[in-house]
Design brief:
about 270 residues; about 30% helix
């Protein structure tokens, strides 16, 4: 399927951690993904515009970023409902939570009901930092190292594009080989699922940690839609309530089937 081919209609799509305005954003790939997207509802699950980066460093804004904004306008014109749940890098937008803006609703968090009846918490995930982060020198060193890994990721994929090779995440490759990174991610998963359980919900959709994932844990759905800095992924719900983790080219990376209704057996009198 070409990047611009019309995709099957989705009931909902979830995108987060785009970081528009930062030099690490893969805006062109996101624009290709949004172009031709057909969905009733689009959740922007935080860190869409990187206001933190643009306040601290030189903003990176070009043709790809303009295309992303135009694709979002096209979706609205096509009848897509957009719900924006701001994250930590676009935190100032939280002052508009609860408002119905001309093109979207802004929520601190949301509850999305799947077609099969399951109810999922939609939250960026930075609320769990107090549980997952230890702070101090080790965390600052991690931030410094992550910036350099992302720089390496950009250079690697620039070379791969020149060679005609597909996108590959050096950052994800290195993080998966770090025990500390894996322990941090597991603390985040546990915190998100515990929050959903406390609220009496069936799972969570989140972002924040730049690690796409889709699975069931003790009967709850853990869905992380990934990011457009490393993994270049999104989450989609189909008409029956099934969930798919999608790559930037629309390929299905993981799938969770919808919950089936209990089997009713009819016995003859």
């Amino acid at each position: 399927m070409s990047a611009h081919a019309k995709r099957p209609r989705q009931r909902a799509v979830f995108v987060s951690d785009v970081h528009l305005g930062s030099k690490n954003c893969h805006a062109a790939e996101l624009a290709d993904f949004l172009d031709g997207l057909d969905t009733r509802r689009l959740y922007l699950v935080g860190d869409i515009v990187d206001l933190w980066w643009m306040a601290q460093r030189r903003a990176a804004w070009g043709h790809g970023q303009h295309r992303v904004v135009e694709c979002l306008h096209e979706l609205v014109r096509a009848g897509t409902e957009i719900i924006y749940v701001p994250g930590n890098h676009d935190r100032p937008i939280r002052r508009f939570c609860g408002l119905m803006l001309p093109y979207m609703q802004v929520r601190r968090r949301a509850i999305h009901q799947l077609a099969d009846g399951r109810r999922l918490l939609v939250a960026h995930g930075d609320d769990y930092d107090a549980v997952t982060h230890f702070g101090g020198f080790q965390e600052h060193l991690g931030d410094w190292l992550y910036d350099h890994i992302l720089a390496g990721n950009r250079m690697t994929n620039f070379a791969r594009r020149r060679l005609g090779l597909r996108y590959w995440s050096l950052a994800d490759f290195l993080k998966r080989r770090s025990g500390a990174a894996e322990r941090y991610i597991q603390r985040f998963v546990n915190a998100g699922l515990a929050d959903a359980r406390r609220r009496g919900l069936d799972g969570i959709v989140c972002g924040h940690i730049h690690r796409a994932d889709l699975r069931e844990v003790d009967g709850l759905v853990y869905a992380n839609d990934g990011d457009w800095v490393e993994s270049l992924t999104a989450l989609a719900e189909d008409a029956e309530g099934g969930l798919c983790l999608l790559g930037h080219d629309g390929a299905v990376l993981k799938r969770l089937e919808p919950r089936r209704p209990p089997l009713r057996l009819a016995f003859a009198a």
